[in-house]
Specification:
Layout lengths: L21 H7 L6 E13 L5 H18 L6 E7 L3 E7 L12 E7 L3 E6 L6 E7 L6 E7 L5 H22 L9
Antiparallel strand pairs: 1-2, 1-7, 2-3, 3-4, 5-6, 6-7
Length: 183
């Protein structure tokens, strides 16, 4: 209805997958909207609830403690977080020090914005950032934790902005506010 295109599509059961070509994305929407951040992925852990600073901090602490034991064997993975109106794409490099990075040596995970329920930085150390997601089909939640040498506040603000715009756009079409007149 928004675009004027015709046809039937089961939108409830599908979501748009962002392609590899950034040039194509630039034609479809403002390229300034997609933001990429280079960070280190610490890990993910299941959490009991979908939101709250306490849940986020407990997950960060649990991951940090388990990472301290294995950091010498397996250092945190370098990755890129690509944030857009559709969601957060986690692109991890599987590169080792002897081989060059090939396109096939990248692992991607995509979290739809509708499944992201909370995000934020650690209140005492804003170099740590995490977001909580709901499993698409089950009533289970996970917290994904990242770290950087610099403040992660811009990442948290970007996800927050994407979240607000997604829900603003979603509510415009899911719950239109146009007046209905009955005769």
């Amino acid at each position: 209805m928004r675009t004027g295109e015709r046809g039937i599509f089961p939108a409830f059961y599908a979501h748009e997958v962002i392609g590899q070509s950034k040039e194509l994305l630039g034609m479809k929407r403002n390229p300034a909207w997609i933001e990429t951040f280079s960070v280190q992925f610490l890990g993910s852990v299941e959490v009991p609830y979908h939101q709250g600073n306490g849940i986020l901090c407990a997950a960060m602490q649990k991951i940090a403690i388990s990472r301290k034991r294995t950091v010498h064997v397996r250092p945190p993975s370098l990755c890129e977080l690509e944030i857009s109106l559709q969601g957060v794409k986690l692109i991890m490099s599987l590169e080792d020090e002897y081989e060059s990075l090939d396109e096939y040596d990248r692992c991607s995970h995509f979290f739809q914005m509708k499944n992201i329920s909370f995000c934020g930085c650690h209140p005492r150390n804003n170099c740590y950032f995490g977001f909580i997601t709901k499993h698409p089909m089950l009533n289970r939640f996970a917290c994904h934790v990242f770290v950087s040498q610099e403040s992660m506040r811009p990442v948290a603000e970007c996800v927050g902005r994407a979240f607000q715009e997604y829900y603003q756009e979603h509510l415009e079409y899911a719950c239109p506010t146009e007046d209905i007149y009955l005769e």
